[in-house]
Each structure stands twice: as C-alpha cells, then as structure tokens.
What does this fold into?
Amino acid sequence: MDAARIDVQALSLTAPGVEQLEVEEAKTLARETNAALANAFRRHPSRFFGLVALPIGDPPAAIAELERSTGEGGFEGVVINGHHRGRYLDDRFFWPILAHIEALGLPIYLHPTQSPKAVVDAWYGGLSLMVGEMMAGPGWGWHIETALHVLRMIVGGVFDAHPKLQIVVGHMGETLPFMLQRVDVMAPTMTKLIKPLSAYLRENVHYTFSGFNFLPTFLDLLLEVGVDRIMFSTDHPYQPMAEGRAFLDRLPVSDADRERIAHGNAERLFGL
It folds into this structure.
C-alpha cells in the first residue's frame, strides 16, 4: 500500500465466498472471516475498513451476523458474492436482509461469481478446459453474470421496495454502462417500475475500477453515470496496486474530480 501510495484499503471475502456453501458452513465461515477482519481493523484502524460477509441462505442468521459484526466497528458495508446457489437478490427470500442493510445505511458490494452450473455448461461447454474456465470467469462470464444480477434486482423491484439501498459493482460497471441507455427499452409500463431502468443504474449503483485500467471504458462510464458515482479501486491482490494508482493519476479529469474518484465518493458512501 505504501509503495503504491494507497492510504486506505477495503477488505472483504472474495468469490466464491460463503454464498455457495451449506447454511451451517456459511454461518461458520462468515463468522470466522468477520472476526479476522475485525482483528485487522483493531491493529490498523487508520488503514483498513471492511465489508461484512453474511450467510444469506439463512436470513435471520445473516441479520444477526450483520448486527454482531457492525457492532464491533470497522465494517462499513456488506459483500455478497453473486447468487446464492442460483437464487438472486430479487428473490423476496432475501428481502428481509436487504431491508436491514438499507436501514443501517450500508452499501452492498456485489462481487462477481461464476454463473450457475447449467449456464456454465450451456455457454462455455465444448471449449478447452483452460479457455472455458477463463471465459466462464474473469475473461467474460463473471462480468455478464454480475450485470444480469443487477438488472434482475432492478426489474424485480428491489429498489422500488428499498429506494435508499445502494450497491457497488466493480470492473468499470461490469458492462452495464455500455448498455445503460439500451436497457430503457424495458419501459416502466412493461416492468411496472416507478422509473426507467437507467435511473436506478444512476441512483442506486456505484462503480469502481477493479483493475479495469482502460481509458475508453472509464470515459464511457463517466459520460453515462457522472463523476459522483465512480470510485477508485485496484482489485488487489488480483491486479497490482501501483498500476491502478498510475492509471488514476493519468485520468484526463480535473483535480477536483480526481479527488472525488480517489477518495471523496468512497468517504461519502461508506461514511469514512
């Protein structure tokens, strides 16, 4: 962090996380993960904050873990690694958890995970093992999967029911900015939503770099959602911190906008 001139880092459990585990295993791993993160916050309170891992397969247990962990301090958001065994957050089974997160004013980082097995088999079957794994994962599938999850949350009415709920996606928006105007073909009259889909993508979603250090992609995101919805991140340990910091420094934006992207927007969203 010091070498890359990074002052503060968010810590969280990456995919596959606890979402694909049996409930009891998920409860144990979430509790152990959150305890380990809390220890890191106590040791370095000015350098780290964290996102709570939750066993969402058991909503009462997830809410209890949320209350327990946030009560310790240092947790400023929630991480959910994609679908729960093929069930997405538009499923009302999860809405008590979402309501509790909304009430606490915590953002959810929706981290990519691999699509359900039937989707992986249909879309990526027949490819060589290495190519199939890459296409189903970081080369393509993770991003499409996460974009679909966000759209399911919107058309499923999550943000109409929980209008203050905020989510964060990485990788310059997981392909969503490119499609932001196109999705409005699904008009409110068709979906029964209060607003056009693009409005939710501009009002309930925030976007981080996550190693997508590509200037044309950044410019598209900036034009579609505006500077106040964009947050710097490096995707460490998967991408070099120094590379991400160098990309931030090169962005063709004003000093004030660079400050917003570098830390101001994250401070506001996470209450830092």
